[in-house]
Amino acid sequence: MKNIFVLALVIFCYSGLIAQDQTPKTDARQTAQRARIRQGKNSGEISKEERVKLKAQQRSIRRTERRAKADGFVTSDEQSTLDRKQNRANRGIRRAKHNKKKAE
């Protein structure tokens, strides 16, 4: 009985680790987007209001990714949703960095 419990625990932990590695592209894009927002803040290209909106968008993407990984497997529909949200975030970052608003 104890062996079965230990085996079930190992399988459960391993499945969680597999889910963490299912979205390396998403993780890399998140890191790049955070760096772009930080760079825009430091250079004054992104205003405070824009930064608040962009950070909220990044939180939404992270929340969606956590929900997708919660069951241990990221489906193609879930990955498509993540990709779509990140594409939208990329456009928002670009627009914020290249508009006339400047940080004060």
Please describe the structure with a list of short key phrases separated by commas or semicolons:
mainly alpha; single chain; elongated; 104 residues
CA-CA gap between termini: 65 Å
| Strand composition percent | under 5%
Low-confidence stretches: none
Secondary structure tally: strands: 0
H and E order: HHHH
> Mean of residue pLDDT?
88
Task: Give a short account of the largest sheet.
Answer: none
- Radius of gyration of CA atoms, rounded to a whole number: 18 Å
**What helical percentage do the residues reach?**
over 70%
Cα shape: elongated
* Number of alpha- plus pi-helical segments: 4
> How many structural domains are formed by the residues?
1
Return the structural class: mainly alpha
Characterize the structure shown:
This protein is mainly alpha-helical and 104 residues long. It has one domain. Helix content is 81%, strand content 0%. The protein is built from 4 helices and no strands. Helix 2 packs antiparallel against helix 3, helix 2 packs parallel to helix 4 and helix 3 packs antiparallel against helix 4 (76-98). The N and C termini lie far apart (65 Å). The mean pLDDT is 88.
Question: What's a concise summary of this model?
Answer:
81% of the residues lie in helices and 0% in strands.
Ordered list of secondary-structure elements with their pairings:
Layout: H1 2-20, H2 24-43, H3 48-69, H4 76-98
